[in-house]
Specification:
Length: about 130
């Protein structure tokens, strides 16, 4: 899996089940917490150039897919998003079919800016799709 931006920047809410100590802070039992996925996915101690789209960061020398514990776009554990496998499968099928049918070319370079709201999305851009078959 590659990442361009964190689509849902905050995960949660979650409830702390017992008194917890984290990074010098005490979190009391039954505290509601939110997880800042945007911060995690842009942590320079975890990622080389987190602001850049670098799909090769998830490939080893032979081109095999690597996983990274710092990438959790669908959450973790019992409360992991139920749509995880469906979303990944749909994205793969649609992307593969578009690339099979069309040659895709950017009309202008992207600035890489993200439009933030309840979810995050890339800025508007234009691309030219040329059919591979006639």
């Amino acid at each position: 899996m590659t990442r361009y931006c964190t689509v849902v920047p905050i995960s949660g809410p979650r409830r702390v089940l017992r008194k917890t100590y984290l990074e010098g802070y005490t979190i009391p039992k039954n505290t509601t917490v939110l997880i800042n996925l945007h911060s995690l996915h842009n942590d320079k101690s975890q990622w080389r150039h987190p602001e850049k789209f670098l799909p090769d960061r998830f490939l080893d020398e032979e081109g095999n897919l690597l996983s990274h514990e710092g990438l959790i776009p669908f959450g973790l554990g019992r409360r992991k998003c139920l749509g995880d496998s469906l979303a990944k499968t749909c994205i793969f099928i649609i992307f593969a079919e578009v690339l099979r049918r069309y040659s895709v070319e950017a009309c202008a370079p992207s600035t890489g800016k993200t439009v933030f709201g309840l979810t995050a999305a890339p800025e508007k851009y234009k691309a030219k799709f040329t059919p591979r078959f006639k």
